[in-house]
């Protein structure tokens, strides 16, 4: 039976790369974006029966939950959720919304759905920025995503949910990141494990 994934900000370069790669690999793909028109070209590359484009504001839990409910009703389960935190440099406020607030909101909305499916929450990490206000906010968002993942691993210890943080390496582009995310969803171990002082409570990858 095909697995189902929900991708936030699916119209972004990384969201599109992940949707196309996973859709062609046999996944059902629920695509969230601020406007449905931005998803039309992606839907054209994938089977209609395996896609569900949705208008979704990932910083609004009242908007995210209905999208997940619709996807679960249509496909039977939500097996994975990709929180696409890789904000474009279009202002520091959006960087914080995409890199921090959306991760917290989508994670909260995801828990009951992923508990039912014993699913997988994947976070696409944010690249550190340059010496500017926007770059500083990217660095803040990158560090915050690690702290949020650590908190989720502790708070969700009793739930059968796998948590993965996939961070960009070097000059990774959308296709390279999409490949690493696909391998993570298929259970591949990390290529560069993150060293920690404390043992992980839940598996990151």
Strand order of the largest sheet: 3-2-1-4-5-6
Please give the share of residues in helix.
40-55%
Beta-strand content estimate: 5-15%
How many helices in DSSP terms? 6
Structural class, by secondary structure, is alpha/beta
| Secondary-structure element pattern, one letter each | EHEHEHEHEHEH
- The total of beta strands comes to 6
Euclidean distance between termini CA atoms: 23 Å
Q: Major sheet, described briefly?
A: 6 strands, parallel
Sum up the overall morphology in one term.
Answer: globular
Contiguous low-pLDDT stretches (5 residues minimum) are: 190-205
Mean pLDDT: 83
- Which radius of gyration do the C-alpha atoms yield? 16 Å
3D structure, described in words:
This protein has 205 residues and is α/β, with parallel strands linked by helices. 45% of the residues lie in helices and 15% in strands. The chain has six helices and six strands. It has helices at residues 13-24, 40-43, 61-75, 92-117, 133-155, 174-185, and strands at 4-7, 28-33, 51-55, 80-84, 120-124, 162-166. Strands 3-2-1-4-5-6 form a six-stranded parallel β-sheet, with helices on both faces. β5, α5 (133-155) and β6 form a beta-alpha-beta unit. α3 (61-75) runs parallel beside α4 and α4 runs parallel beside α5. The chain starts with a strand and ends in a 20-residue tail after the last helix. Mean pLDDT is 83; it is low at 190-205.
